[in-house]
Amino acid sequence: MDEALAPLFEPFALRKLRLCNRIVMAPMTRGFSPNGIPGDDVAGYYRRRAEGGAGMIITEGVGVDHPAALGGSGVDGDNAPHMYGKAALAGWKRVVDDVHTAGGVIIPQLWHQGVMREQGTGPHPQTPSARPSGIWGPLDKQNTVNDAYLGSVAARAGEPMSETDIADVIAGFARSARAAMEVGFDGIAIHGAHGYMIDTFLWEGTNLRQDRWGGDRKRRTTFAVEMIRAIRREIGDEPVIDFRFSQWKQQDVRALLATTPQELEEVLGPMADAGVDIFDASQRYFDRAEFAGSPLNLAGWAKKLTGKHAQTVGGVGLSSGMYDSQKDGRSAVALINVHKVAERLARGEFDLVGVGRAIMHDPVWARRVRNGEDLLAYDEASRLELT
Ligand SMILES: Cc1cc2nc3c(=O)[nH]c(=O)nc-3n(C[C@H](O)[C@H](O)[C@H](O)COP(=O)(O)O)c2cc1C
User: Fold this and answer.
1) Does the C-beta of 282 come closer than 6 Å to ligand 1?
2) CA 245, CA 281: separation in Å to the nearest integer?
3) Does residue 30 register a pLDDT over 60?
4) Among the atoms of ligand 1, which is closest to the Cα of residue 318?
């Protein structure tokens, strides 16, 4: 192994989590679970990533036990798996058992699409989509959704969520977290990013509420805090909780939850106190400094400000970020940035390194890095199948 990459292959221990290295397969929606049920093909897909040396796998976003959790979302979500119901949970048990047999570690990403879910779609089409303030978000920003979706779905306002609606969604997260632990997952990841349910409470562009769920930055964390606490109550102290957040939203790629470290502390501090162990800071390029005057990236700041562990992500091993490779259909290998991320890891800026497309495309990516083998260029076509 190239000694400069050795930090990526250090073990990691936290609560009852034991990882053999720092490489984490990032959560990626795949849409191969008809009726929400992950089948043998999904189990094989994750088993191959465990065999290929990923220290931990975070599954694709998995719908929580709430009728408006999933549907079409203008970008993804069709045939996404559920974390409820006998058949889906039996499917997940098979996935978990296969990954464990291969020596891997796996946690599910609990997901509620919130405002992004198209009305009238998903397993419960009659249930209205859940939106904190009834709106999808500002319609005049640079977004990542298609025009048809924007015109027909996003622009149509609905009712703000009631107290009962909010309590139901939180309870759905808690039930699904418990179900995940019962089938043997090694911890819980929460999708708090990219303009979905949790993020729309955090973001001023979608949370216009004047009650206890809205207001300043800290008050806008109330939903996430109550949800994290509810999950912690269900799963106990042993399993880790990994919380993904992002500055950018699908509604506005330039959105910012925080423009200074102090503002970021206002967002992350209450969630750290509520029980988050690892902040997964979603950036499109991991090597972008977050705030002026310091080279720290978003994960670096999350770790520094909260004292919790942090995970970075964004373009590791590839020359272009997720939306750029979508435009180009491919992305070249960039071994240089595997070195750069290892250097930052060695400095203690963050603890874990998320790798998305490179591992989706190549199940043995981590093993190749360790053995100094040539890495593969990324081809967007790999989104279309579960190889
Ligand atoms: C096909 C695809 C599906 C994705 N689905 C999710 C998802 O379900 N949840 C999530 O938090 N991020 C999702 N992402 C974002 C990835 O987790 C990751 O942050 C992003 O791809 C950047 O990492 P990379 O440059 O290593 O690919 C997805 C990305 C891709 C390419």
Assistant:
1) yes
2) 5
3) yes
4) 25
Report whether residue 26 contacts ligand 1, using a CB cutoff of 6 Å: yes
The ligand 1 atom at the shortest distance from the C-alpha of residue 27 is 17
Q: How confident is the model at residue 345 (pLDDT cuts 50, 70, 90)?
A: very high
Contact by Cβ (8 Å): 317, 358: yes
Which candidate in 196, 285, 323, 378 is catalytic?
A: 196
Determine the pLDDT at residue 119: 84
Counting the structural domains of the chain, the total is: 1
Kindly report the CATH number assigned to the domain that includes residue 158. 3.20.20.70
Helix (H, G, I), strand (E, B) or coil at 182: helix
pLDDT band at 74 (very low <50, low <70, confident <90, very high): low
- Whole-model pTM over 0.85: yes
Residues 122-158 pLDDT 10s: 999 999 999 999 999 999 999 998 888 888 778 788 8
Interval between CA 350 and ligand 1 midpoint (Å): 19
DSSP 160: B
Neighbours of 309 (CB within 10 A): 21
Average pLDDT rounded to a whole number, residues 312-320: 96
- Catalytic residue status for 45: no
Which atom of ligand 1 has the smallest separation from the CA of 383?
Answer: 1
d(CA 384, CA 15): 36
CB-ligand 1 contact for 353 (6 Å cutoff): no
What range defines the domain where residue 38 resides? 3-384
